[in-house]
What we know:
Low-confidence stretches of chain B: none
Shape of chain A: rod-shaped
Helix content of chain B: 10-25%
CATH architecture of the largest domain in chain A: 2-Layer Sandwich
Radius of gyration of chain A: 43 Å
CATH architecture of the largest domain in chain B: 2-Layer Sandwich
Largest sheet of chain B: 7 strands, mixed
Largest interface: A-B, 90 and 100 residues
Structural class of chain A: alpha+beta
Strand order of the largest sheet of chain B: 30-33-34-38-37-36-35
Shape of chain B: elongated
CATH topology of the largest domain in chain A: BirA Bifunctional Protein, domain 2
Mean pLDDT of chain A: 92
CATH topology of the largest domain in chain B: BirA Bifunctional Protein, domain 2
Radius of gyration of chain B: 42 Å
CATH class of the largest domain in chain B: Alpha Beta
Oligomer: heterodimer
Largest sheet of chain A: 8 strands, mixed
Number of strands of chain B: 42
Low-confidence stretches of chain A: none
Distance between the termini of chain B: 93 Å
CATH superfamily of the largest domain in chain B: Bira Bifunctional Protein, Domain 2
Number of helices of chain B: 20
Number of domains of chain A: 2
Strand content of chain B: 25-35%
Mean pLDDT of chain B: 93
Strand content of chain A: 15-25%
Amino acid sequence: MTELDTLEHQLMADVAAAGDEAAIEAVRVGALGKKGSVSELLKTLGGMSPEERQTRGAAINALKSRVADAIGARKTVLRDAAIEARLLAETVDVSLPVRASPAERGRIHPISQIVDEITAIFADMGFSIAEGPDIETDYYNFTALNFPEGHPAREMHDTFFFPADETGERKVLRTHTSPVQIRTMEAQKPPIRIIIPGKTYRQDSDATHSPMFHQVEGLVVDTKANVANMRWVLEEFCKAFFEVDGVTMRFRPSFFPFTEPSFEVDIQCDRSSGPIVKFGEGTDWMEILGCGMVHPNVLRAGGLDPDEYQGFAWGMGLDRIAMLKYGMPDLRDFFNADVRWLSHYGFRPLDMPTLFGGLSA
Amino acid sequence: MKFTLSWLKDHLDTDATLDEICERLTAIGLEVEEVDDKAAFRPFVIARVVSAEQHPNADKLRVLMVDTGKGDPVQVVCGAPNARAGLVGAFAAPGTYVPGIDVTLAIGTIRGVESRGMMCSEKELEISDDHDGIIDLPDDAPVGESYAAYAGLDDPVIEINLTPNRPDCTSIFGIARDLAASGLGTLRTPKPPSFEVEGETPVKVRLDLGGDGHLCPGFALRIVRGVKNGPSPRWMQQRLLAIGLRPINALVDITNYMTFDQGRPLHVFDAAKVKGNLTVRRAKDGETVLALDTREYTLNPSNIVIADDNGIESIGGVMGGEKSGCDGNTTDVLIESALWDPMNIARTGRSHGIITDARYRFERGVDPEYMVPGLERATELVLELCGGTPAEADVVGYRGYSARAVDFPVSEVKRLTGLDVSSDESVDVLTRLGFTVTGSGERVSVAVPSWRPDIDGKADLVEEVMRIHGVDKIRPAPLESHGAVNGRILTTLQIRSRLARRALAARGMLEAVTWSFIPKAQAELFGGGAASLSLANPIAADMSDMRPSLLPGLLSAARRNADKGYGDVALFEVSGTYENDRPEGQRRVAGGVRRGTASLAGSGRLWSNATRGGGKPVDVYDAKADALAVIEACGLPMGNVQIKPGAPAWYHPGRSGTIRLGPKIVLGTFGEFHPKALAALDVSGALCGFEIFIDAMPEPKKKATRTKPALDLSPFQAVRRDFAFVVDSTVEAGAIVRAATGADRKLITAVNVFDVFEGASLGEGRKSIAIEVVIQPTDKTLTDEDFEALTARIVGNVVKSTGGVLRA
């Protein structure tokens, strides 16, 4: 065994023995560093004859190359092992729970969601949204809507009153959203197409009546709008709102002071499966809204000539259609702010009702 | 309004089935609310007891063999005391549901003897309360036939939900007239009453109403002498019972029968109990009357009464008096048929809480032209059922009916409904309903019949034609499209309300809808409680005042949830509050509360709370973040928003703030709550809340273009420098941030407060605030000298404006 063989043997043994990156670096310095054993050998080449250099030089360089390769290979192995060890040490328990995103915990109240759904539908038919105050004058709530003073129909409204002021006038909590019809006609010339969602109040309380509830009202006034158009609007609305392919609706002549002719509208449904009502099928009828042609006296109160302008209006309970669509059993729960109810019946903030994405998921 | 099928058929000749009649009623606007077809009675048959033997094992029971008219007699065990051989009664076979005991019969064994059915009592059939024995029919009752048919109990009862505009259909005759007009049969016109009268009615009527004659526009009175007032005949009793009226005696029953049959309320006085003549007048203040319901009413001058020398005998058109009522001893009867003012009747009935069939009709409007014919018909019925001799009627005050004429362009039907109805058909419908149409062609004059006070214009006539012609004939027709893509339809306020809702929900809060009215004490505590916002007739004492703030309702809701074991709640509401009773006094507010540990990061205990946040009691900064999130979502420029310490009295004075925009606009408030406010609301626990006045936000400036401003990205590296200042502990961090920012508005792009420290090492009343200043060079890399100069300006500004020192 030559001197080179011995050195190589020794170095290869050192490489193999190096247990970490520092050890292998020490081996590299000891062999290939400035004063390393292989580097020292290379320095001897200068004092050799050309022939000697040719053979011995080549041998030393070959040795250097093999040692360098071995060190490089060992380094890679050791680095990988070190990474492995670090990763192992860094391992955590991914089964530990994390918090739900706030957007997942938060909820929109069904009333707000339904208003957005209705807005999406009627916006498509060219309607805008109108609003008005909860505290109304007797004039806007009754007189302008053709409820004569002392008329029994006023009694049917179970009105909340405020104390009379110095002029003897008593303000009321609006019993319906209809005052906004008059306010709109006063403010805007036809054509009018508006939807009026809002709070309404009547002195009444049980599972289907609440002293505060919500209505949505619609008003169309132009020079042509008639009962046939109203049927179309309401049928299109019900189909879109209840998200069914078709609905059968029954218009029954009825009476409201502010419309003439007036109708109550029933929708055909299946109520055989308990509290869940299915629309677009079945043989039962369920009353869903009231409507009619705007009474000439109401048009006059809005400053319009009933021989020139005509139109129709309708109204329905927002809470009620929410209950029909989404199955809440008791109206009073809407206003209790019970977090269990809100979490269950409420909607996620990113569930935005649109026509292009569907009203409800 | 209730009636039976056979009663209807007295006036309507028709082959239509019950279903067809009901369907048509609903279709023409007389909505059928309920139909009782009496099917429940069908299984009960007339049966004869062939033999009755003592039960072998029970003293009080008998074993009957019953002939049901079908097959061999069946064995029935019966406990009725009147069960005997030969009795004819009502039998129910096994499988029959017996309503009075709520049981479906089965073949049973009673004390060891098999029983195959039941002989029933009236109570078991829910005909009456009689349970003394089983039904005992005359011997000739047809065995095997339906008991209900024999007893007249199979007459279906129909109840319609009558709208207030149709007084004409408070009578069965009127309903028949409507049905006949719609083509469902022919109206039977009754033979006019005819009888001989003898002498005059000795009791005279005087209307003493001064100039208010409209309060009693007619009064007709007749005496019938020598009547015999016993029970009314079975057919009349059955009809009255079927619609829920209790038979009293023939005279009273006749008035009730006429009320429903003809919509003509009547009153009968026992002539022997009437002293002197009758006067129709206003009641005197405090005058009392014992009415037929045996209650005493204290009246006032707005009530119209009929009085004699004894005092008040009747509250006109509402309820008769007990004193002069008719009973079995009555021999001479005074029959009253009068007219009253609808509004006055409604007010009188309402103010005394009296609901009667007479009031129901008079407040809607009774046919004036039927006042006298109604008296004639009632007289005829009295003569028929009670005998006697009628006198000439005394009729006062009635001036006859002059029909309103409505000018009716027939094309109105098409204009308002879209229906193509020929002119002839329209005229025909109106004529069938009793209108008198004159003229021809496109424009006719329509005279309104006396029984239709609800008709006063063209639109009313359109409704008549439409409902009789058929609403279902109107085909839906699309509303004309505007012919363009819709633009924005929501107002800024509506858009901001929606954004506020979604933004707060996205922060993990639950949207609530709470009452607009709250307890007075709470309203006062939160700056409200004005008399003009206090309901005169609240539904409950704690729902009395319009809320001045969303917070009391939300705080109470948080308490209710905590009481149920859900203490960590984050609730918000976007709705109205009320500053005054005018439209502009109604504000649009987004408010919210967080309770317990319900912070944005999350509530409750979790392994990661210490390192990752969440689970800590909420405080003023949670509320501030929510409040600012609303403002940000609504698109306000946050740079102009200022936070001032302190908020209204219901907040913690040292842990609350007011958010302003410029000097004038208050955008909202936030903070923890004053312990006194919480105590008054009976709420406890860590709580914070906010209110943002969405309606106070200015409209965004109209932009000329949708293009966003050009983005100038600096190629030079941004640099961060940290500073710490020791300041007096009253100095606001915001002041330091403003001062630092002001050092160079171009280069300094952000100043972040990253540490606040108070400790003994700084000395009493001192604190250290550390800020990181982000410097973004724009046109060159800054030199050391540049930095030094900038640093000096930052420190100088802060020191000058806060009196602090740079921390060593």
